[in-house]
């Protein structure tokens, strides 16, 4: 029975292995006269160990490296997840087409094995909102959340048995406060309909968050326009402060910016602003809340000093990075002519 099973196995093996063979390499079957149906002849052949096993020995001796060939063929036919290499020895997978979660899990497992053999480091998987069904499969294979945006989630995994050097998610939120003063020595202030200052009677400068891809100067101009309807021109960054654990455990950088008004008729934003007006800069600095809080008091004194011409902030200077991107460098412009004319 064991011999019959072995012959059956190798018979199937021979039939299914023809794709790996060349005609000159095939050991021919022994010639026998077949008096009956082909099926009975094949069965007799398989049952006769004197014929079956010697033939298999001769056949397999010609393919001592068959297992190697088989492995190579399987490796060539394995489908991997499509990925782009990054500049730090890792890969980035972007799923764009619908895929079943079971199929994805299988492809991911094979791909991870391949990337591990290739010495890849970090693996990033970007899953659009419509493919969120794949998150669980990735998590079960060791991936973790890195960050999320309104339209996708990014998962990541570090492969080597070394210290994980993948960059963490963005650590800071960037905000601005706009110090807008007219030629009468009046500063533009608002009271908000929500937030910590709601109902306190405190007058504050327009504030807001810098959007992704937005310059500090552009954000300050935009926020003033949105909240008060005033058109402005950006002049300087007067000061900035950094705080921690301020927004979902993220740190915060806040830039106090000075802007020059180009219009003066206030049209407040009804959804966020309770009231807006121009008041003397001295009245702004004299508010009890401002004077009782050291940080606000310092900012107010800087603004007062600037209004008197005794303070100079950081002005934006347009420049380019090594990759050709346009950007701004902020610095004190008192010695700008010297800096631009000097050589190192």
Automatic annotation (TrEMBL):
Gene Ontology MF annotations: ADP-ribose diphosphatase activity; metal ion binding; NAD binding; NADH pyrophosphatase activity
Q: Which Pfam families match?
A: NUDIX, Nudix_hydro
- Hydrolase as a keyword of this entry, yes or no, is yes
Gene3D superfamilies assigned to the protein according to its UniProt record, in alphabetical order? 3.40.630.30, Nucleoside Triphosphate Pyrophosphohydrolase
Keywords, A to Z? Hydrolase, Metal-binding
User: Where in the numbering of this chain does the Nudix hydrolase domain appear?
Assistant: 171-301
* Superkingdom of the organism of origin: Eukaryota
Database matches in CDD domains: NUDIX_ASFGF2_Nudt6
Name the family the entry cites: Belongs to the Nudix hydrolase family.
Protein name (record): Nudix family hydrolase
């Amino acid at each position: 029975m064991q011999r019959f099973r072995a012959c059956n196995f190798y018979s199937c093996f021979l039939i299914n292995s023809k794709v790996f063979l060349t005609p000159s390499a095939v050991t021919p079957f022994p010639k026998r006269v077949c008096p009956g149906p082909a099926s009975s002849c094949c069965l007799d052949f398989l049952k006769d160990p004197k014929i079956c096993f010697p033939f298999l020995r001769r056949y397999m001796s010609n393919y001592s490296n068959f297992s190697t060939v088989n492995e190579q063929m399987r490796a060539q036919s394995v489908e991997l997840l499509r990925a782009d290499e990054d500049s730090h020895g890792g890969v980035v997978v972007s799923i764009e087409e619908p895929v079943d979660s079971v199929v994805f899990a299988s492809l991911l497992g094979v791909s991870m094995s391949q990337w591990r053999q290739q010495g890849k480091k970090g693996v990033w998987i970007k899953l659009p909102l419509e493919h969120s069904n794949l998150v669980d499969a990735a998590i079960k294979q060791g991936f973790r959340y890195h960050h999320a945006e309104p339209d996708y989630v990014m998962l990541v995994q570090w492969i080597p048995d070394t210290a994980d050097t993948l960059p963490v998610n963005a650590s800071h939120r960037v905000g601005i406060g706009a110090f807008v003063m007219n030629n009468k020595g009046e500063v533009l202030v608002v009271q908000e309909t929500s937030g910590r200052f709601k109902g306190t009677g405190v007058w504050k400068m327009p504030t807001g968050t810098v959007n992704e891809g937005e310059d500090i100067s552009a954000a300050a101009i935009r926020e003033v326009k949105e909240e008060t309807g005033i058109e402005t021109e950006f002049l300087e960054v007067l000061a900035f402060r950094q705080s921690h654990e301020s927004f979902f455990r993220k740190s915060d950088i806040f830039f106090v910016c000075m802007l020059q008004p180009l219009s003066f008729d206030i049209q407040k934003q009804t959804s966020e602003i309770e009231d807006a007006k121009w008041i003397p800069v001295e009245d702004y600095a004299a508010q009890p809340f401002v004077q009782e809080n050291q940080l606000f008091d310092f900012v107010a004194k800087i603004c007062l000093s600037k209004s008197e011409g005794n303070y100079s902030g950081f002005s934006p200077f347009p420049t380019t990075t090594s990759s050709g991107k346009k950007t701004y460098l902020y610095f004190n412009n008192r010695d700008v002519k010297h800096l631009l004319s000097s050589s190192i």
